[in-house]
Amino acid sequence: MGIYSFGDFELNEDSRALRLAGSEIEAQPLVFDFLAILLRHQDRAMSKDELLETLWPGVTVTEASLQRVASLARGILRQGGMEAALRNLPRFGYRICLDQPSISERRPADAGGKPSSLGSSILSARAAVAGRKWHEAAASFAKADAADELLTPDLEEWGLALECMGRPAEAIPLLARAVTAYGVAGERLRAASPAITLARIHLERGELAVAKGWHKRAAQLIDTASDSREHGLWCWMGARIMGAEAEPEQALALAEQAFAVGRHLDDPVVESLGLIYRGFFKLCLGETKAGQEDQDLAAALGLSSDVDPIVGGILYCNILWACRNFGDWSRANQWTLGYEDWCRGHGLEDLSGSCRLHRAEVLGVHGTLKEAEALVRAALDQLALDAPWATGDALRVLGDIHLAAGEFTEAETAYRASHAAGWDPQPGLALLQLEQGQAEAAFSALERSLVGNGWPTLQRRGMVLATLAKVAARTNRRERAKEVIAELETQPQRWPMASVQALTAEAKAELFMLEERFAEAARELQIACSRWNEVGSPINVADARLSLAALLIKIGDRSGAELELGTALAAAKKVDSSRLMRRCEKLKDLIVGAQALTVGGA
Prior knowledge:
CATH architecture of the domain at 3-96: Orthogonal Bundle
Structural class: mainly alpha
Strand content: under 5%
Radius of gyration: 29 Å
Strand order of the largest sheet: 1-2-3-4
Number of strands: 7
Mean pLDDT: 88
Number of helices: 29
Shape: elongated
Distance between the termini: 102 Å
């Protein structure tokens, strides 16, 4: 047992106290023991097995538990600018290195940095970051900057705080300063990390050329260090850039490289980011099951490793974009609820624009239309700050919500705005055109929507194809409808989602009705009802039931039609959709007319 002083820290094993600049700070018992063990054996590296056996004697735990303890310890060390002292030795274990000058002692020439004192702004800022108090951290960093207390790593932490507050644009000059400061100090590899972060922020702002510039700058800084964490992050960022340039095969290859680097280094952040995008681009290229498995594993890996809120948000959002594009609503709902809880647990009081957008679309599908509309409008405001590239998608979702509610003028306005923002508003716009009697325009628009190699086009292909089959049948293009249905049904492993299966069933019903095969059409509509029930979409269930009711009237099954109509009417009232109500009223009139004919004939 002993007392260890390092930097501004003091760890006393006898009193089990950890102090920073003379003030005691809180550390979980396992985190305290982890630091104490490494300090006691600072002359050598400790293997994972040694640490596991010492920290959890007689208990079987996974390496993920050790990774979490190490992550929490690094967070504590960060408060004193000493996080670099804790070294992760890939495939072996950990070591605390105090024999070389720490970052707090190697002050880059332009970083200034007066000695930290008890109660100083910089210590308050670091403590706020560790406690995920982002607003407090940003304010304290600003004061520390004015007092010339910042070290270069603090610039990155300040940028993180601003991003967590939904103000990434304000992080850009700080990260640029960090790149410069690391470069002046001769730490080129470390300079690559903020350069990559700058590439990400600019990409998410829709500034692809600037993102590519910072990505190339990072490549220069990394140079030949291909086994470094920075190289893994560079590959991951390259995958995103290739995706933005509609090169999914190259994007997949880079994501695979990022995953391999992270795996080799035993770095859960790089590994999970590479894996999440490997899954994302597998989904684009038709490897649906493998892509979903990659994404789910990536989220579990990253979120069990105490990643920062930005990385966690990337993992969650990536899955949710894919779920929404594929119409995988059950999975989307599970991940959206988990994401909301995770955001609140990481100090993100105001949900990001992407999070609001994901939740809004799920709520719209589930029939909570007013709440969904309010949420997507809030998302539009936030997206303007943190992800303006997604504005077009948010407007598409807004159009879908108005369409479901029967507000056709508002839906058309939103779809046109989505298109103007560079997004494809299909298949919602085509469905609106069907409602407006513009079936030919709907068919042409859907055919155009299948052209291209961008990730939204590739991922939404199943939903667009299924809608196209329905519209092709409605416009009497029987061969095209059969061709599209065959593409969907001969690749069930590519589109196993209930929503795609429901739309395909509706398309087949349209075809069968053209051929007067009414019993088979009724069967397909019943399948559609069942699949939409699996999704949990009362609006789509009601639509399918009303189509079935109209068919039953046609074949003389009035009691069956009344049953379907009654269920659909209850749903229409519950979701408050004037469109569904209008359909219900028309069918009521048809049933009354059919009853009158029956009575008259009698």
